[in-house]
Amino acid sequence: MKHTTILMCGIALAxxxxxxxxxxxxxxxxxxxxxxxxxxxxxxxxIVGDDSKSDWQQTxxxxxxxxxxIIAAKARYNAALQxxxxxxxxxxxxLMLGGFIEPIETRNGPMQMKIGLQQRIPWQGRLDDLxxxxxxxxxxxxxxxxxxQLQVRKQLTELWAQRILLDRSISITKTQVDLMRHIEVLxxxxxxxGRASQAKVLxxxxxxxxxxxxxxxxxxxxxxxxxxxxxxSTVPGSSIDWNEQEYPLQNLVAxxxxxxxxxxxxxxxxxxxxxxxxxxxxxNDQRMPDFMVGIDYxxxxxxxxxxxxxxxxxxxxxLAFDIPFGNRPYAAMVTASEQRQxxxxxxxxQATRNLxxxxxxxxxxxxxxxxxxxxxxxxxxPRAESTIEATLQAFQSSQASLQDVLDAxxxxxxxxxxxxxxxxxxxxxxxxxxxxxxxxxx
Length: 442
Hints:
Layout: H1 2-16, H2 55-66, H3 68-87, E1 94-105, E2 110-121, H4 124-192, H5 198-233, E3 252-253, H6 264-285, E4 291-300, E5 314-321, H7 330-396, H8 402-434, E6 440-441
Antiparallel strand pairs: 1-2, 2-4, 3-6, 4-5
């Protein structure tokens, strides 16, 4: 009976040693991530999927929930949360069972079997450093989630700008087709009255046909952009009424372009560099020995001598520790960790310069696009419209040639397309900024 009781106690002890030593509560990823910057509005908080929001905002909300890159980043974050508890846990205890081919006689009786339980206890400082490192890496993974969200916002904004540009270009070109048909009617009327040659009629018809073909090409390009929008957001672009759309992110408000806490791409590298610094501490901790404690239980049978201690079982206690005499290349481990930390430091510095250049270039492109918008909208297009009206009147009175009419119509078409291209370029510049910084679109 006493053998069975002791054996059950040993198994219960082995089971209890397997519990998590850190006591950490594992939570799933929910935006906004508390490890980023609570003071800054996260992308999800800007989007509410209701009917009061624009099609772009609702499409972006769907992308946040269904885009594969974002979902994968969240899965990596959840995995990093689990790693924190794994790193801080004690190694599994070892339960050992043994027997004797030939019973060994002792004063109390023959030894029949042995049960041992061992537990390795790593240096506590190393466990703490490993747990802290994994917590920092989880913060880096959270920053990556936000960066992926911003990249999706950038992609979707750029595609939205392209799609609006194509839709408006189609509308402008169709209007130009109507103008060319009106010019064609004028040329045919002159031809019937003998004031124009058949070649001019054919030339006008050819110009009209080329514009009609351009409409088909623009429509094909629009279908391609619709497919790309679906790839990013799982929302079919063909289901959106593009005639009612406006260029998104027209009112960007940045808290601070130079604040790294608002730039998750850099924040991710900063956390990784902090984790690399902990790797140096962990490498130094490798010199500190691990301890091992254990207990042995030997089951002893009754002897034939009739002693009072006959059949009493034997217990033993073990205490062991590693001796770091240099069997492991400790100095090389520290050097390797320091080099990885240095690598991330240089990577962060270069990424900061690249991101600064990207943002400054986007601001310059935005200003240049605004200049072109003002130029075409306020100066060139009004003058071109006056020119085409005057040229058509002059053509009807035979004071202007067909070439003058075609040149004037081509000029106004080019200006109108350039105006829309400037609007699209401005939106693309805003997309670059919105893809790098946590910015509200108020």
